[in-house]
Each structure stands twice: as C-alpha cells, then as structure tokens.
Amino acid sequence: MQNKIRIGVCGYGNLGRGVESEIGKFPDMELAAVFTRRSPAGSLKIDSDAPVVSAGDAPEWKNKIDVMILCGGSAHDLPSQGPAFAKDFNTVDSFDTHANIPEYLNSMDDAARSGKNVAVISAGWDPGIFSLMRLYMGAFLPEGETYSFWGKGVSQGHSGAIRGLEGVAGAVQYSIPNEAAIESIRKGERPKLSVREKHKRLCYVAIEEGADRDKIESKIKNMPNYFAEYDTTVNFVSLEELQRNHAALPHGGNVLRSAVSGAQNNQLLEFSLRLDSNPEMTSSVLLAFARAAHRLSQRGESGARTVFDIPPALLSFAPAADAVRDLM
Known about the structure:
Rossmann fold; Dihydrodipicolinate Reductase, domain 2; seven-stranded parallel β-sheet
C-alpha cells in the first residue's frame, strides 16, 4: 500500500470525535493530529495517540497533513475557519446552512485556489448524500416532486447553533418529520408543503445561571435559516437532565421523489437513513470525501468542490476495476 493519507482534525466536538473513532475503518488513512482552540492545547484529552496542536500553530503543519477535516459548526465557526484553513490545506467540511452554501462555496473557492488546494464543502449526509439523491432522482424522473424529511433525530448543526448563543450551557435539538405527509407521498400524492408543514423543531436547552430565559427562547425561535421557518418548541432543563436524557445522537431521514412517466404511470423513488449515531455517519462521509480531495489534489487540481463535482469512483478505497467487477 502507498503511504497513508494523513488526516488532520480541526475541532474535537461530536464530529471530531467521530472522525477519530471511524478513521481506523479506512485502511488508507491515519490520524496525524487534532487541532484545537483550547489554551493550552495540552488541556484537551483525546482517545487516540495523535498529537494535540493549537489551531494557531496549524500553518506549521502544512506539509504534514494531506487533508484537514473541519469539524466546526456552520453557524459560528466554518464561515471564517473554512477559508482560513483552505489557504494552507486540502479541506473537507459539512457546512450545512443550506441557504448560505453558494456564498460559502465562493469564499472557499477563492481561498483554496490561492493556496493551490482542494476544498470539498457540505459533504455530510444532508447536505451531502441527500443532495446527490435529489439530483439523481430529478435527473432520472424529470416530471415530479422531490421531498426531503429529517428525523426524528438530533441535528448537530441546529444544536450547535443554539449552543453558540450567549447564556446557553448546553442544548440538543430534535427534528420531527410530518409522518402523515410522508405516507401521503408514498401513496402517490404530491402535496405542496411549506417548510413549516414538513417538520417541527423540538429543543432542550440548559442555560447558565442568571441567563435571560425569555430572551434566549426568542433568539432561538427567530433564528433565520434554523428555526424561524418552523414551529419550534423550547424546553428548558437542567444541564444534568440534558446530559442524562439527551446524550444519544440518533438521526435519519428520507428523500422521496413522486413522479410520472409515460401518460400516467406513477413512479416513486425513496432513499432513507436510520442512524444510531449521527456524528459517526457524518464523519465517515467526510473521510470518504477526504480520500477524493486528496486524489484530486494529487492530480494538480485546486479550488472548491461540492459533492456534485466528485466522481463517485474517487470515494472508494477499491480500485476502479474492482468496483466495476463487484458493484456494477
């Protein structure tokens, strides 16, 4: 085997720990270092033997990391963290603020090209895998409607957005899909559904002593791109209750396309996920796209890419001939 792809992890929350946990299942990769904003960096204890490095010292590792996986949150970290790292490293991230992806793509493209690096953005499972399903389904059956549903499960991005608010000590947010709407689509109906009609948001929030509960609830419910468009319920709980009852991180969802072919033949395509661990699944997807980013960089390519731009064969550890033989 050729030299392993040296992976750096920036951020050691649920997603960073997921990358650390899952990288051993990728035989062509190794964890080179974990980068943290904690001071001192040595105060961060991790589960592997990889060195822990201050994020401020990351440029010194430019020639020791093949791909940096950015594990910061989309609301507060990645808009600045992403371009900063893309100047020095090939990067992969799971930026998931859907409305801001075009703007983020442009900023990452400028940064990655300036450093002659490859930056793969929004490469989780939604955006990411679900994005691909929406594209494929619409391409295969052009006359119809595509629907995406998430949950019931914990959204890392939405939970992180709440945790970033002043006065919040901890938070978990559950996405609750409209099951009746899903069943109607499976029956061949094509309802017109608003964002609010498709999901509800259920939040459990622990606040710091002295924090203004009403102000925090208002900020959550009116947060654009996260909660303002949904019916959102905020439950305030103690930090102990949050840790006791909401520590698991399951998730899942469905992409469905209800379409017509010929004169009146109904066609239904459906892709679904049921996950015991949202961050472990997301981190596994990021690692596969890290492999693709490394291969593109080895070809001399640079700039930002979305999952739409990555040839599927670049994701697989298997040689192309084996994939054709075994999977086609």
